[in-house]
Amino acid sequence: MNLIYIDSKLEELIQKLFENNGPDPEEYEGILKLIDAIDPGEMATFREFMQPILNPATIIGFSFTKPFGYNGDFFIIEKIYQHYVNPDEKYKKWDEFFHTFPAAIAVVNRKTLAKEVLTKLNAGTDGATKNVMILGSGPVTEVYEYFNQIPTNNLIFDLLDLDNRSIAYAKNKHRKNLQFMTFHNQNVIRYTPEKKYDLIWSAGLFDYFKDKHFVFMIKKYYEFVNEGGEMIIGNFNVENPSRKIMEVLGDWFLYHREAEELIEFAVRAGIPFENIEVISEPLGINLFLKLKK
Ligand SMILES: C[S@@+](CC[C@H](N)C(=O)[O-])C[C@H]1O[C@@H](n2cnc3c(N)ncnc32)[C@H](O)[C@@H]1O
């Protein structure tokens, strides 16, 4: 696609979209195809056309403008989890469109997967206390929903996040569960745990780490997994149909990785091969490196 094509056809399409206050479902596929065809040299022009929605009033614009200073903050993740739609007619259809992105659905799916893992761990405790650490804990919504669905909790949580606004939000959300939770305003790269855990979970964090940091983090935290416990690390798969729209409109760039790369990282970190597994949420867009001990 060249710039002339973008200028004429896309401008016309975008104008029509704005006149209609955003896309209707039958237009989603066409828009995604057009965006997939945009090459890096055309991105700035396209973003200029899209300016009316590239502000924090839409989810995609929130990502683009980064009001918290970085991508993937607790607030945008919570908007995805809560299926937030701006009631303003100018933005509503854009948020509805956003929630149909396979990547957004995969993020919601990873919350479900986390709840399943926590529920299973809790059920296997026979009343004894088990320790869980969450790295890059954000809104801690998976734990919130877990608490709401289990009859008796036997899990004790340590929650690490670099952003104290994220911690303040999560503490307020969890004010009824704080006896089971300790929040640490820490950088996971620098932090050294003070005890061992039956589960170390991290989703939405390692996709921001370079390969060498990923391997370093496995090595560092695997040391703090109890015998019989596990460490589970999420990372977006290279097979992510929403990657282009997230990059072009959301300015949201991640290290996408294949299952084989995740396995290789674990091997490089010295994890025995038989203890390594890769699982995923139902769409296969969020992979999880599962390391048993
Ligand atoms: C995309 S959110 C994911 C939140 C949560 N794990 C989830 O899946 O819903 C990433 C979180 O990691 C935090 N974070 C980013 N880099 C970090 C670091 N180096 N140390 C600790 N937290 C970090 C961010 O502040 C943010 O809350």
Quick structural gist:
This protein has 12 helices and 7 strands. With about 290 residues, it is α/β, with parallel strands linked by helices. A 7-stranded mixed sheet has the order 3-2-1-4-5-7-6, sandwiched between helices.
Structure commentary:
The chain has 293 residues and is of the alpha/beta class. The protein has two domains: 3-103, no CATH class; 105-292, Vaccinia Virus protein VP39 (Rossmann fold). The protein contains twelve helices and seven strands. It has a seven-stranded mixed sheet, with helices on both faces. Strand 6 and strand 7 (286-292) form a beta hairpin. Helix 7 (102-123) crosses helix 8 (141-149). The longest helix is centred in the middle third of the chain and has 22 residues, at 102-123. S-adenosylmethionine (SAM) is lined by residues 72-74, 77, 136-139, 160-163, 166, 187-189, 203-205.
What features would you highlight for this structure?
single chain; binds S-adenosylmethionine; alpha/beta; Rossmann fold; 7-stranded mixed β-sheet; 293 residues; 44% helix; 2 domains
Strand proportion, as a percent range, falls in 15-25%
Give the CATH level 1 class of the largest domain: Alpha Beta
**What order do the helices and strands follow?**
HHHHHHHEHEHEEHEHHEE
**Overall helicity:** 40-55%
Q: What's the Cα radius of gyration?
A: 20 Å
Specify the overall morphology: globular
Low-confidence stretches: none
C-alpha termini separation: 50 Å
Spatially, the strands of the biggest sheet line up as: 3-2-1-4-5-7-6
Oligomer classification: single chain
CATH H-level name of the largest domain... which superfamily?
A: Vaccinia Virus protein VP39
Total helical segments: 12
- The counted number of beta strands is 7
The CATH level-2 architecture of the largest domain is identified as 3-Layer(aba) Sandwich
